[in-house]
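Fold this: Endoglucanase
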Amino acid sequence: MTIPSSSLLSRYLLLVLVLFVLLLGTSSRLVKSGSHDYQDALSKCILFFEGQRSGKLPTDQRLSWRSDSGLGDGRENGVDLTGGYYDAGDNVKFGFPMAFTTTMLAWSVIEFGDMMPPTELRNTLVAIRWATDYLLKTVSQPDRIFVQVGDPLVDHNCWERPEDMDTVRTVYSVDSANPGSDVAGETAAALAASSMAFRSSDPAYAETLLSTAIRVFEFADNHKGAYSDNESIRAGVCPFYCDFDGYQDELLWGAAWLRRASQSDSYLNYITNNGKTLGADDNINEFGWDNKHAGLNVLVSKEFLEGSVYSLESYKVSADSFMCTLIPESSSSHIEYTPGGLIYKPGGSNMQHVTSIAFLLLVYANYLSRTSQTVNCGSVSVGSASLLQQAKKQVDYILGDNPMGMSYMVGYGDKYPQRIHHRGSSIPSVKDHPQFIACKEGSVYFGSSSPNPNTLVGAVVGGPGEDDVYEDDRANFRKSEPTTYINAPLVGVLAYFVANPN
């Protein structure tokens, strides 16, 4: 080997050092994929809901590997409870998260519907109606709400296509003696918000939704209590969708949506007069299917920011406080981020926090922009541009700008999860394998290392851990399971960036 001269040796060593540093940083460096096709992502995000449908599927069903399922739901109880959505990768219809999903889809249309391509606006309204048609069935009896179909313990003991489902379809309900203000309040919110979404395209349906929302909210307020406190249904909803944070936030949330939809002062008085007693100042930095506080504060702040209702100032103060926690340069910032920049909260299905918070960032940014206001975060004044930037970082991370260099939305981009925790996606479809696959016979597909045979297009999985690492492992449901309430707020977020990509 020829020994290089001292000058050449210096250059050689410098080159080696540079290469070493580059290689060292590969595992933690943020991989950017360039500009994203937000319209394609939006289309797929909405399409996902067709894969979660229960009931008799329409002739224009686009995810053709799905077929009819749950056609006897409610029959043993003398009520038609067909339809609605399976919340995640199982075959249970949980009413609490389904109602929240519906509210968020409707809120997406209310805030960002005019930014959606017409076809995708129509598809979003179809997705909402698939839920609201079902929710109307659940509240068809006076002072009673059917809150769930399917025994989750039995269901989770099987790995079975929904089309083959032969597990017990237990129906759970709340009534005046066994209240459920949380589910009732969220259902009222879903119906009220959806009435706004349908107001221009189907005013008669919108009126039905609103009048029903009013009735359901009265039930929630007149018979107070958490649904998971009822011994008759506790075993069916816990630990999956217990009410961990109390029912009070859903009462305020339901009233806030009824105020927005009806403009009735009675609901304004409700949220003004009951804020303290119902804990409006509690847990203001949380938002999701169980805790509505941050979303409530953002929603209610609109009227105060517009200068029309000064009695709502406390809600705006809480909304400002929440926004300040999300801004890294703020002295009150305490949100946790992964090294790659993803919002991270301990527990399962982290992307539910990411998409919901990104949605609130965008909505609040719009409210601030329209009223030319900012948020005072101590020594930092935060405007709408900063909130928009934070939201964009989150959605771009989901779509591929992350250390793994992969999209966490199935079917979007060149690299995405192949082994998601989802029964229908992981088992050959009835079109390809028409023979019945019994409860335990699906286990071979659960344990397989092969990619899922059916692509659940648009499904956003729970996502990577706090170290930005994602193992494409079907068994790791906390990371690999999609849910409707991950996708629902993302519909609105993507709609915004379709119209404002830069």
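The CA atoms of residues 178 and 230 lie 6 Å apart. The longest strand covers residues 144-149.
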